[in-house]
TrEMBL record:
Keywords noted in UniProt: Transcription, Transcription regulation
Record's keyword annotation contains Transcription regulation: yes
Domain HTH deoR-type: start-end pairs: 1-59
InterPro entries for the chain: CBASS_pafABC_assoc_protein (IPR051534), DeoR_HTH (IPR001034), HTH_11 (IPR013196), PafC-like (IPR028349), WCX_dom (IPR057727), WH-like_DNA-bd_sf (IPR036388), WH_DNA-bd_sf (IPR036390), WYL_dom (IPR026881)
Pfam family, one: WYL
Xref: PROSITE patterns: HTH_DEOR_2, WYL
Statement: the UniProt record of this protein carries the keyword Transcription: yes
Protein name in the entry: HTH deoR-type domain-containing protein
GO MF annotation, one: DNA-binding transcription factor activity
């Protein structure tokens, strides 16, 4: 009944006048039930009234909004802002919810966030995967993916997806990998192909899992590097801010747990970065540089 009362109010907010018969048909009940609902709304303080005769019907006062909600102004604003953020991450139906709540609260949503998923040269692919995985999570469907893990050729995986996560600069899907018989994170950017199957599974609550992304496997490496001022703009976006030296370069320290990934990152800075610590990592970067030189000989 409460849901029907809410829907009646929302219907009246979007239509100037509705007849009792139209409401009865919409909510599959009798006109007598609708009239009782109108009386209840009136008693509750909702300014609803009925006009008899030709062209008459049930209406709300034109300036009515649901300002008698238990939510404060700040709470309503937070709800609308949160839905705005959710809408930008790729969810579809939240746009309709956002518009409805804006109407109910008598407030305009502030367009405060914009997110673009696509990468250079491959527009829309990651966003498509995001939407497919989201749908699979909500409908409890197993996904088939072709995944490129570190140092390994692409492998076929069946995964029970449980949660989409964002950390650092990347989206991950967290789920149960049937190949490894264990819970795993899969970076969306490393998925070469994805298919949502018709196979269903029973989900289990997993709580917060992002800490596992850093802790789950490898030993933490403490790294110290010096970066030339020409690459400072990039490092400031990606690593902790460090000490700026007189020549404009920066020394920064950070922790990582993926040796291969960090070596590749340092190499991507070219001649503008040097590993200071640990010594063994400095040597491994040097070995990779020597292998690269051999390719061009």
């Amino acid at each position: 009944m409460v849901d029907r009362l809410f829907q009646i109010v929302y219907t009246l907010m979007n239509q100037e006048t509705v007849t009792c018969g139209e409401l009865a048909e919409k909510f599959e009940c009798s006109t007598r039930t609708i009239m009782r609902d109108i009386d209840k709304l009136s008693i509750a303080g909702v300014p609803v009234y009925a006009n008899k005769g030709k062209g008459g019907g049930i209406s709300l006062l034109s300036d009515f909004v649901l300002d008698k909600t238990v939510l404060t102004d700040d709470e309503r604003s937070q709800i609308l802002s949160s839905l705005q953020a959710i809408k930008e991450t790729g969810y579809g139906e939240e746009k309709e919810v956002l518009n409805k709540l804006s109407s109910l609260f008598g407030a305009d949503t502030q367009d405060w966030i914009e997110i673009e998923f696509s990468r250079w040269g491959e527009p829309g692919k990651e966003e498509t995967y995001f939407k497919q995985i989201k749908e699979a999570i909500l409908k409890h469907r197993i996904i088939d993916i072709k995944y490129a893990a570190s140092h390994v050729e692409c492998s076929d995986r069946k995964v029970k997806p449980l949660k989409l996560c964002f950390r650092g600069f990347a989206w991950y899907v967290y789920g149960f990998c049937l190949l490894r018989n264990d819970y795993r994170f899969f970076k969306l950017k490393r998925i070469a192909d994805l298919f949502v199957t018709h196979e269903s599974f029973t989900p289990i609550p997993v709580g917060r899992v992002l800490n596992e992304l850093f802790e789950q496997s490898k030993e933490v490496i403490h790294i110290k590097i010096q970066v030339h001022k020409q690459q400072l703009y990039r490092v400031l976006e990606e690593l902790p801010h460090g000490v700026i030296l007189e020549d404009g370069s920066m020394i920064t320290e950070f922790d990582a747990n993926d040796e291969s990934a960090i070596i590749n990152y340092i190499l991507s800075l070219g001649a503008y970065a040097k590993v200071l610590e640990p010594a063994w990592l400095q040597e491994k970067v040097r070995e990779q540089i020597e292998k690269m030189i051999l390719i061009y000989e």
